[in-house]
Amino acid sequence: MNLSQHNQFSSKASQLLSWGHWFTFANIGLALFISLSFLFADSPPTSFMGITYMLVTWLSHTSFIAFLAFVLTIFPLSLVFPYPRHIRGMAAVIATLGASLLTLDAYVYVNLGYHLNSSALPEIISLLWHRLTSSPTLTTLLAGGIVLLILGFQLVVSNFTWHHLARLKQLKFARFASSFLVLCFALSHSIHIWADANLNFDITKQDNVLPLSYPTTAKSLLAKNDLLDIESYKQAHDVRINNQNINYQIPAPLQKCEDYTQQQVDIFVFDTPEQLNNFVAKQDKLYKTEQFLQPTHHGDSLFSLVYGLPSFYKMAILSEQTLPAWQSQRRSVELSGIEKLDFINDRAHSNSAIKIIKGQSNPTPRSEDTHIFAFSLANNSADVVTSSVLYSSDKRISKVDGLIQPSDLIATSVGQYLNCKSVVSQTMLGENLYKKKNDTGVNYSQGVVIAYKKDRITLIDSDGNYKNISAAEGFSIEQSLDIPFLVQSIKKLKTYTQ
Q: Which ranges form a coiled coil (predicted)?
Protein backbone atom coordinates (compact mmCIF):
# COMPACT_ATOMS: atom_id res chain seq x y z
CA MET A 1 0.00 0.00 0.00
CA ASN A 2 2.70 2.44 1.00
CA LEU A 3 4.83 1.45 -1.99
CA SER A 4 1.89 2.00 -4.34
CA GLN A 5 1.25 5.41 -2.86
CA HIS A 6 4.91 6.23 -3.17
CA ASN A 7 4.94 5.23 -6.84
CA GLN A 8 1.82 7.28 -7.46
CA PHE A 9 3.44 10.25 -5.70
CA SER A 10 6.63 9.85 -7.80
CA SER A 11 4.63 9.58 -11.02
CA LYS A 12 2.74 12.81 -10.34
CA ALA A 13 5.95 14.60 -9.36
CA SER A 14 7.64 13.37 -12.54
CA GLN A 15 4.74 14.55 -14.70
CA LEU A 16 4.67 17.92 -13.00
CA LEU A 17 8.40 18.27 -13.48
CA SER A 18 8.06 17.61 -17.23
CA TRP A 19 5.13 19.99 -17.43
CA GLY A 20 7.12 22.59 -15.50
CA HIS A 21 9.89 22.57 -18.09
CA TRP A 22 7.46 23.29 -20.94
CA PHE A 23 5.64 25.89 -18.87
CA THR A 24 9.01 27.55 -18.23
CA PHE A 25 9.84 27.52 -21.96
CA ALA A 26 6.62 29.41 -22.65
CA ASN A 27 7.48 31.96 -19.96
CA ILE A 28 10.97 32.36 -21.37
CA GLY A 29 9.31 33.45 -24.60
CA LEU A 30 7.12 35.93 -22.70
CA ALA A 31 10.10 37.27 -20.74
CA LEU A 32 12.09 37.73 -23.96
CA PHE A 33 9.21 39.70 -25.44
CA ILE A 34 8.89 41.98 -22.39
CA SER A 35 12.66 42.47 -22.08
CA LEU A 36 12.89 43.80 -25.65
CA SER A 37 11.95 47.16 -24.12
CA PHE A 38 15.28 47.22 -22.24
CA LEU A 39 17.18 46.92 -25.53
CA PHE A 40 15.31 49.82 -27.11
CA ALA A 41 15.52 52.08 -24.04
CA ASP A 42 19.16 53.06 -24.71
CA SER A 43 21.19 53.88 -27.77
CA PRO A 44 22.09 50.63 -29.57
CA PRO A 45 25.68 49.35 -29.89
CA THR A 46 27.47 50.43 -33.04
CA SER A 47 29.86 47.53 -33.68
CA PHE A 48 29.12 44.00 -34.92
CA MET A 49 30.56 42.55 -31.72
CA GLY A 50 28.43 44.89 -29.61
CA ILE A 51 25.25 43.86 -31.44
CA THR A 52 26.19 40.18 -31.14
CA TYR A 53 26.79 40.55 -27.42
CA MET A 54 23.49 42.38 -26.97
CA LEU A 55 21.52 39.58 -28.68
CA VAL A 56 23.21 36.59 -27.01
CA THR A 57 23.03 38.29 -23.61
CA TRP A 58 19.36 39.12 -24.12
CA LEU A 59 18.60 35.48 -25.01
CA SER A 60 20.72 33.79 -22.35
CA HIS A 61 20.33 36.17 -19.42
CA THR A 62 16.57 36.54 -19.76
CA SER A 63 16.19 32.76 -20.12
CA PHE A 64 18.35 32.21 -17.07
CA ILE A 65 16.20 34.55 -14.96
CA ALA A 66 13.02 32.76 -16.04
CA PHE A 67 14.52 29.31 -15.40
CA LEU A 68 15.88 30.41 -12.03
CA ALA A 69 12.40 31.63 -11.05
CA PHE A 70 11.04 28.18 -11.91
CA VAL A 71 13.72 26.41 -9.88
CA LEU A 72 13.11 28.59 -6.83
CA THR A 73 9.30 28.50 -6.86
CA ILE A 74 7.41 25.97 -8.99
CA PHE A 75 9.97 23.17 -8.85
CA PRO A 76 10.02 22.78 -5.03
CA LEU A 77 6.23 23.14 -4.89
CA SER A 78 5.89 20.27 -7.39
CA LEU A 79 7.96 18.00 -5.16
CA VAL A 80 6.33 18.93 -1.87
CA PHE A 81 2.76 19.36 -3.08
CA PRO A 82 2.31 17.22 -6.27
CA TYR A 83 -1.34 17.93 -7.01
CA PRO A 84 -1.54 18.95 -10.70
CA ARG A 85 -4.62 21.17 -10.62
CA HIS A 86 -3.43 23.18 -7.61
CA ILE A 87 0.18 23.42 -8.79
CA ARG A 88 -0.85 24.61 -12.24
CA GLY A 89 -3.05 27.29 -10.71
CA MET A 90 -0.35 28.44 -8.29
CA ALA A 91 2.24 28.40 -11.08
CA ALA A 92 0.03 30.62 -13.23
CA VAL A 93 -0.33 33.13 -10.38
CA ILE A 94 3.40 33.07 -9.54
CA ALA A 95 4.37 33.47 -13.19
CA THR A 96 1.90 36.35 -13.54
CA LEU A 97 3.49 38.11 -10.58
CA GLY A 98 6.97 37.58 -12.04
CA ALA A 99 6.03 38.79 -15.53
CA SER A 100 4.16 41.77 -14.09
CA LEU A 101 7.20 42.69 -11.99
CA LEU A 102 9.41 42.44 -15.09
CA THR A 103 6.97 44.69 -16.96
CA LEU A 104 7.06 47.23 -14.12
CA ASP A 105 10.85 47.10 -14.09
CA ALA A 106 10.88 47.71 -17.84
CA TYR A 107 8.59 50.73 -17.44
CA VAL A 108 10.81 52.19 -14.70
CA TYR A 109 13.96 51.56 -16.74
CA VAL A 110 12.57 53.21 -19.87
CA ASN A 111 11.51 56.31 -17.90
CA LEU A 112 14.24 56.61 -15.25
CA GLY A 113 17.19 54.69 -16.69
CA TYR A 114 17.62 52.20 -13.85
CA HIS A 115 15.97 49.09 -12.47
CA LEU A 116 13.75 48.58 -9.44
CA ASN A 117 15.76 48.94 -6.24
CA SER A 118 15.25 50.13 -2.69
CA SER A 119 17.62 53.12 -2.88
CA ALA A 120 15.54 54.65 -5.69
CA LEU A 121 12.17 53.91 -4.10
CA PRO A 122 11.15 57.59 -3.69
CA GLU A 123 11.86 58.35 -7.37
CA ILE A 124 10.02 55.20 -8.51
CA ILE A 125 6.98 55.97 -6.35
CA SER A 126 7.00 59.55 -7.65
CA LEU A 127 7.03 58.30 -11.25
CA LEU A 128 4.16 55.88 -10.69
CA TRP A 129 2.16 58.40 -8.68
CA HIS A 130 2.57 61.05 -11.37
CA ARG A 131 1.40 58.57 -13.98
CA LEU A 132 -1.59 57.58 -11.88
CA THR A 133 -2.69 61.10 -10.99
CA SER A 134 -2.22 62.50 -14.50
CA SER A 135 -4.64 59.97 -16.04
CA PRO A 136 -6.06 57.70 -13.30
CA THR A 137 -8.70 55.92 -15.40
CA LEU A 138 -6.43 55.16 -18.33
CA THR A 139 -3.55 54.10 -16.07
CA THR A 140 -5.75 51.78 -14.00
CA LEU A 141 -7.30 50.19 -17.10
CA LEU A 142 -3.91 49.81 -18.78
CA ALA A 143 -2.16 48.32 -15.75
CA GLY A 144 -5.09 46.06 -14.93
CA GLY A 145 -5.39 44.99 -18.55
CA ILE A 146 -1.72 44.05 -18.74
CA VAL A 147 -1.95 41.94 -15.56
CA LEU A 148 -5.13 40.21 -16.76
CA LEU A 149 -3.58 39.59 -20.18
CA ILE A 150 -0.53 38.00 -18.57
CA LEU A 151 -2.72 35.90 -16.26
CA GLY A 152 -4.80 34.75 -19.22
CA PHE A 153 -1.64 33.78 -21.08
CA GLN A 154 -0.39 31.79 -18.07
CA LEU A 155 -3.67 29.91 -17.63
CA VAL A 156 -3.85 29.01 -21.33
CA VAL A 157 -0.20 27.88 -21.43
CA SER A 158 -0.58 25.95 -18.16
CA ASN A 159 -3.60 24.00 -19.42
CA PHE A 160 -2.27 23.49 -22.94
CA THR A 161 1.11 22.10 -21.85
CA TRP A 162 -0.55 19.78 -19.30
CA HIS A 163 -3.12 18.33 -21.70
CA HIS A 164 -0.59 17.93 -24.54
CA LEU A 165 2.31 16.79 -22.39
CA ALA A 166 2.69 13.39 -24.09
CA ARG A 167 2.94 14.97 -27.52
CA LEU A 168 5.31 17.68 -26.32
CA LYS A 169 7.66 15.08 -24.84
CA GLN A 170 8.20 13.67 -28.32
CA LEU A 171 9.49 16.98 -29.65
CA LYS A 172 13.26 17.52 -29.82
CA PHE A 173 12.83 21.28 -29.68
CA ALA A 174 13.49 21.54 -25.95
CA ARG A 175 16.83 19.76 -26.16
CA PHE A 176 18.13 21.92 -29.03
CA ALA A 177 16.76 25.11 -27.49
CA SER A 178 18.37 24.34 -24.12
CA SER A 179 21.74 23.65 -25.76
CA PHE A 180 21.49 26.87 -27.77
CA LEU A 181 20.69 28.97 -24.69
CA VAL A 182 23.57 27.41 -22.74
CA LEU A 183 25.87 28.22 -25.67
CA CYS A 184 24.61 31.82 -25.69
CA PHE A 185 25.16 32.06 -21.94
CA ALA A 186 28.79 30.91 -22.25
CA LEU A 187 29.37 33.11 -25.29
CA SER A 188 28.01 36.25 -23.63
CA HIS A 189 30.29 35.87 -20.61
CA SER A 190 33.30 35.12 -22.81
CA ILE A 191 32.65 38.21 -24.92
CA HIS A 192 32.29 40.33 -21.80
CA ILE A 193 35.58 39.08 -20.36
CA TRP A 194 37.28 39.90 -23.66
CA ALA A 195 35.63 43.34 -23.82
CA ASP A 196 36.60 44.16 -20.25
CA ALA A 197 40.22 43.24 -20.96
CA ASN A 198 40.34 45.15 -24.26
CA LEU A 199 38.43 48.26 -23.12
CA ASN A 200 35.57 47.71 -25.55
CA PHE A 201 32.98 50.13 -24.17
CA ASP A 202 30.49 49.29 -26.87
CA ILE A 203 30.03 46.03 -24.94
CA THR A 204 30.72 46.96 -21.32
CA LYS A 205 28.36 49.94 -21.44
CA GLN A 206 25.55 47.35 -21.70
CA ASP A 207 26.39 45.95 -18.25
CA ASN A 208 23.28 47.18 -16.51
CA VAL A 209 20.75 47.10 -19.35
CA LEU A 210 19.04 43.85 -18.31
CA PRO A 211 17.83 43.31 -14.73
CA LEU A 212 20.10 41.38 -12.34
CA SER A 213 23.05 41.69 -14.70
CA TYR A 214 26.57 43.06 -14.25
CA PRO A 215 26.78 45.89 -11.71
CA THR A 216 27.34 49.27 -13.33
CA THR A 217 30.68 51.03 -12.80
CA ALA A 218 31.32 54.73 -13.12
CA LYS A 219 33.21 54.10 -16.36
CA SER A 220 30.52 51.99 -17.99
CA LEU A 221 27.87 54.51 -16.87
CA LEU A 222 29.72 57.34 -18.62
CA ALA A 223 30.29 55.23 -21.72
CA LYS A 224 26.62 54.30 -21.84
CA ASN A 225 25.71 57.99 -21.87
CA ASP A 226 28.34 58.85 -24.53
CA LEU A 227 30.41 60.93 -22.10
CA LEU A 228 33.72 59.15 -22.65
CA ASP A 229 36.27 59.97 -25.31
CA ILE A 230 36.83 56.28 -26.07
CA GLU A 231 39.35 56.76 -28.88
CA SER A 232 41.67 58.76 -26.66
CA TYR A 233 41.34 56.12 -23.98
CA LYS A 234 42.34 53.35 -26.35
CA GLN A 235 45.33 55.31 -27.58
CA ALA A 236 46.73 56.70 -24.36
CA HIS A 237 44.54 55.47 -21.48
CA ASP A 238 43.57 59.11 -21.14
CA VAL A 239 39.81 59.09 -20.83
CA ARG A 240 38.14 62.46 -20.92
CA ILE A 241 34.47 63.08 -20.53
CA ASN A 242 33.46 63.84 -24.05
CA ASN A 243 31.85 67.22 -24.66
CA GLN A 244 33.77 67.97 -27.87
CA ASN A 245 30.85 67.35 -30.21
CA ILE A 246 28.02 68.57 -28.00
CA ASN A 247 25.42 70.69 -29.75
CA TYR A 248 23.49 72.97 -27.44
CA GLN A 249 19.83 72.90 -28.39
CA ILE A 250 16.94 74.44 -26.48
CA PRO A 251 13.27 73.71 -27.12
CA ALA A 252 11.65 75.82 -29.80
CA PRO A 253 9.66 77.92 -29.84
CA LEU A 254 10.35 79.44 -26.44
CA GLN A 255 7.39 80.47 -24.35
CA LYS A 256 7.16 84.22 -24.01
CA CYS A 257 6.80 85.96 -20.68
CA GLU A 258 4.04 88.48 -21.14
CA ASP A 259 3.87 89.35 -17.43
CA TYR A 260 7.36 90.84 -17.47
CA THR A 261 8.39 92.48 -14.18
CA GLN A 262 10.96 95.27 -14.44
CA GLN A 263 13.21 94.72 -11.45
CA GLN A 264 16.94 95.08 -11.16
CA VAL A 265 19.46 92.45 -10.05
CA ASP A 266 23.13 93.10 -9.34
CA ILE A 267 25.45 90.12 -8.96
CA PHE A 268 28.89 91.03 -7.61
CA VAL A 269 31.76 88.60 -8.14
CA PHE A 270 34.95 89.33 -6.21
CA ASP A 271 38.41 87.92 -6.78
CA THR A 272 39.20 87.44 -3.10
CA PRO A 273 37.26 86.88 0.15
CA GLU A 274 38.80 90.09 1.53
CA GLN A 275 37.17 92.17 -1.23
CA LEU A 276 33.87 90.44 -0.52
CA ASN A 277 34.11 91.19 3.20
CA ASN A 278 34.89 94.87 2.52
CA PHE A 279 31.82 95.13 0.28
CA VAL A 280 29.54 93.41 2.79
CA ALA A 281 30.72 95.72 5.58
CA LYS A 282 29.43 98.74 3.65
CA GLN A 283 25.95 97.29 3.01
CA ASP A 284 23.01 97.57 5.38
CA LYS A 285 21.12 94.30 4.91
CA LEU A 286 22.85 91.30 3.38
CA TYR A 287 22.10 87.77 4.53
CA LYS A 288 24.72 85.05 4.60
CA THR A 289 24.71 81.37 3.65
CA GLU A 290 27.70 79.04 3.71
CA GLN A 291 26.18 76.47 1.36
CA PHE A 292 27.34 78.03 -1.90
CA LEU A 293 28.88 75.29 -4.07
CA GLN A 294 30.96 76.51 -6.99
CA PRO A 295 33.61 75.05 -9.32
CA THR A 296 37.16 76.06 -8.48
CA HIS A 297 37.74 76.81 -12.17
CA HIS A 298 36.79 80.47 -12.44
CA GLY A 299 35.78 80.31 -16.09
CA ASP A 300 33.42 77.41 -15.47
CA SER A 301 31.88 79.14 -12.48
CA LEU A 302 31.28 82.40 -14.37
CA PHE A 303 29.82 80.62 -17.39
CA SER A 304 27.40 78.77 -15.14
CA LEU A 305 26.47 82.05 -13.46
CA VAL A 306 25.63 83.77 -16.76
CA TYR A 307 23.85 80.96 -18.62
CA GLY A 308 22.41 78.87 -15.79
CA LEU A 309 24.11 75.80 -17.31
CA PRO A 310 27.09 73.59 -16.44
CA SER A 311 30.28 74.21 -18.43
CA PHE A 312 29.48 70.97 -20.27
CA TYR A 313 27.87 73.31 -22.82
CA LYS A 314 30.51 76.05 -22.68
CA MET A 315 32.47 75.04 -25.76
CA ALA A 316 29.37 74.81 -27.96
CA ILE A 317 27.90 78.10 -26.72
CA LEU A 318 31.11 80.13 -26.91
CA SER A 319 32.04 78.83 -30.36
CA GLU A 320 28.65 79.97 -31.72
CA GLN A 321 28.50 83.03 -29.42
CA THR A 322 24.98 82.02 -28.44
CA LEU A 323 23.26 84.69 -26.39
CA PRO A 324 21.40 83.88 -23.17
CA ALA A 325 17.77 83.06 -23.96
CA TRP A 326 16.29 85.99 -22.03
CA GLN A 327 18.21 88.55 -24.12
CA SER A 328 15.60 88.16 -26.84
CA GLN A 329 12.74 88.43 -24.36
CA ARG A 330 13.52 91.84 -22.82
CA ARG A 331 15.60 90.21 -20.09
CA SER A 332 18.88 91.90 -20.87
CA VAL A 333 22.05 91.11 -18.98
CA GLU A 334 25.13 93.31 -18.83
CA LEU A 335 28.53 91.90 -17.97
CA SER A 336 31.52 93.71 -16.56
CA GLY A 337 34.98 92.19 -16.22
CA ILE A 338 34.22 88.84 -17.96
CA GLU A 339 36.21 89.05 -21.20
CA LYS A 340 35.29 85.70 -22.81
CA LEU A 341 31.60 86.53 -22.53
CA ASP A 342 31.89 90.17 -23.57
CA PHE A 343 29.97 89.51 -26.82
CA ILE A 344 26.79 89.38 -24.73
CA ASN A 345 27.06 93.13 -24.06
CA ASP A 346 26.41 93.89 -27.74
CA ARG A 347 22.73 93.23 -27.09
CA ALA A 348 22.53 94.66 -23.58
CA HIS A 349 20.26 97.61 -22.89
CA SER A 350 21.48 100.77 -21.23
CA ASN A 351 19.53 99.88 -18.12
CA SER A 352 19.90 96.13 -18.05
CA ALA A 353 17.68 94.10 -15.78
CA ILE A 354 20.65 91.99 -14.65
CA LYS A 355 24.20 93.24 -14.15
CA ILE A 356 27.02 90.83 -13.36
CA ILE A 357 30.06 92.72 -12.15
CA LYS A 358 33.43 91.05 -11.65
CA GLY A 359 36.73 92.43 -10.50
CA GLN A 360 35.70 95.82 -9.12
CA SER A 361 37.07 96.44 -5.65
CA ASN A 362 34.41 98.96 -4.55
CA PRO A 363 31.24 98.39 -6.59
CA THR A 364 27.96 100.09 -5.73
CA PRO A 365 24.42 98.68 -6.12
CA ARG A 366 22.26 100.63 -8.56
CA SER A 367 19.52 101.44 -6.05
CA GLU A 368 18.07 100.48 -2.70
CA ASP A 369 15.47 98.28 -4.40
CA THR A 370 18.03 96.29 -6.39
CA HIS A 371 18.29 92.60 -5.55
CA ILE A 372 21.89 91.78 -4.64
CA PHE A 373 23.99 88.62 -4.78
CA ALA A 374 27.65 88.72 -3.78
CA PHE A 375 30.34 86.04 -3.56
CA SER A 376 34.05 85.58 -4.17
CA LEU A 377 35.57 83.16 -6.65
CA ALA A 378 37.12 80.03 -5.21
CA ASN A 379 40.78 80.08 -4.31
CA ASN A 380 43.10 77.80 -6.22
CA SER A 381 42.42 74.32 -4.93
CA ALA A 382 43.14 70.73 -5.80
CA ASP A 383 39.42 70.02 -5.55
CA VAL A 384 37.06 70.49 -8.49
CA VAL A 385 34.37 72.14 -6.38
CA THR A 386 34.34 73.88 -3.05
CA SER A 387 31.81 75.36 -0.64
CA SER A 388 32.03 79.06 0.05
CA VAL A 389 29.98 82.00 1.32
CA LEU A 390 27.16 83.70 -0.55
CA TYR A 391 25.50 86.96 0.48
CA SER A 392 22.09 88.09 -0.69
CA SER A 393 19.71 90.96 -0.01
CA ASP A 394 16.89 88.39 -0.05
CA LYS A 395 16.55 86.84 3.40
CA ARG A 396 14.71 83.87 1.92
CA ILE A 397 17.84 82.81 0.00
CA SER A 398 19.77 82.41 3.24
CA LYS A 399 17.10 79.99 4.50
CA VAL A 400 17.16 77.67 1.48
CA ASP A 401 17.75 74.08 2.51
CA GLY A 402 20.66 72.47 0.69
CA LEU A 403 23.41 73.61 -1.60
CA ILE A 404 23.23 76.59 -3.95
CA GLN A 405 25.13 76.75 -7.26
CA PRO A 406 26.04 79.75 -9.47
CA SER A 407 23.47 78.60 -12.04
CA ASP A 408 20.76 78.91 -9.37
CA LEU A 409 21.46 82.62 -8.98
CA ILE A 410 20.63 83.51 -12.59
CA ALA A 411 17.69 81.08 -12.56
CA THR A 412 16.27 82.81 -9.48
CA SER A 413 16.91 86.26 -10.95
CA VAL A 414 15.11 85.52 -14.23
CA GLY A 415 12.46 83.17 -12.89
CA GLN A 416 11.51 84.92 -9.66
CA TYR A 417 12.58 88.56 -9.69
CA LEU A 418 11.87 89.10 -13.41
CA ASN A 419 8.88 86.75 -13.32
CA CYS A 420 9.85 84.62 -16.32
CA LYS A 421 9.70 81.06 -15.04
CA SER A 422 9.09 79.53 -18.47
CA VAL A 423 12.47 80.68 -19.82
CA VAL A 424 14.21 79.18 -16.81
CA SER A 425 12.48 75.83 -17.15
CA GLN A 426 13.14 75.68 -20.91
CA THR A 427 16.75 76.88 -21.11
CA MET A 428 18.53 76.36 -17.77
CA LEU A 429 19.55 73.60 -15.40
CA GLY A 430 19.84 76.06 -12.53
CA GLU A 431 16.91 76.12 -10.10
CA ASN A 432 14.73 78.97 -8.96
CA LEU A 433 15.59 78.91 -5.26
CA TYR A 434 12.04 79.96 -4.39
CA LYS A 435 10.81 76.72 -6.00
CA LYS A 436 13.61 74.41 -4.86
CA LYS A 437 11.98 71.11 -3.82
CA ASN A 438 14.85 68.67 -3.39
CA ASP A 439 18.44 68.86 -2.33
CA THR A 440 20.03 67.44 -5.47
CA GLY A 441 21.91 68.93 -8.40
CA VAL A 442 24.43 68.34 -11.15
CA ASN A 443 27.36 70.31 -12.52
CA TYR A 444 30.42 69.81 -14.69
CA SER A 445 33.89 71.29 -14.53
CA GLN A 446 37.38 70.41 -15.74
CA GLY A 447 36.13 67.21 -17.34
CA VAL A 448 34.46 65.99 -14.15
CA VAL A 449 30.79 65.21 -13.61
CA ILE A 450 29.67 66.69 -10.28
CA ALA A 451 26.47 65.38 -8.70
CA TYR A 452 25.32 66.25 -5.21
CA LYS A 453 22.63 64.85 -2.98
CA LYS A 454 22.22 66.59 0.37
CA ASP A 455 25.72 66.85 1.85
CA ARG A 456 27.26 64.14 -0.36
CA ILE A 457 29.02 65.18 -3.57
CA THR A 458 29.96 62.49 -6.08
CA LEU A 459 32.76 63.29 -8.53
CA ILE A 460 33.36 61.09 -11.58
CA ASP A 461 36.70 62.08 -13.02
CA SER A 462 38.26 61.82 -16.46
CA ASP A 463 39.39 58.22 -15.89
CA GLY A 464 35.94 56.99 -14.95
CA ASN A 465 36.99 56.82 -11.30
CA TYR A 466 34.81 58.32 -8.62
CA LYS A 467 34.89 59.60 -5.07
CA ASN A 468 32.34 60.90 -2.60
CA ILE A 469 33.10 63.95 -0.50
CA SER A 470 31.27 65.97 2.12
CA ALA A 471 30.01 69.30 0.83
CA ALA A 472 30.27 70.98 4.23
CA GLU A 473 33.65 69.66 5.37
CA GLY A 474 35.34 68.43 2.18
CA PHE A 475 36.47 65.07 3.58
CA SER A 476 36.12 61.84 1.61
CA ILE A 477 33.13 59.60 2.27
CA GLU A 478 33.54 55.84 1.93
CA GLN A 479 30.37 54.89 0.12
CA SER A 480 29.53 52.91 -3.01
CA LEU A 481 28.11 54.50 -6.15
CA ASP A 482 24.44 55.46 -6.04
CA ILE A 483 23.75 54.33 -9.60
CA PRO A 484 20.09 55.45 -9.84
CA PHE A 485 20.99 58.95 -8.65
CA LEU A 486 23.95 59.19 -11.05
CA VAL A 487 21.83 58.04 -13.98
CA GLN A 488 19.33 60.79 -13.18
CA SER A 489 22.12 63.35 -12.87
CA ILE A 490 23.73 62.45 -16.20
CA LYS A 491 20.37 62.49 -17.96
CA LYS A 492 19.77 65.95 -16.50
CA LEU A 493 23.26 67.10 -17.56
CA LYS A 494 22.48 66.06 -21.15
CA THR A 495 19.07 67.78 -21.27
CA TYR A 496 20.05 70.22 -24.05
CA THR A 497 22.23 67.96 -26.16
CA GLN A 498 21.21 67.31 -29.75
A: none
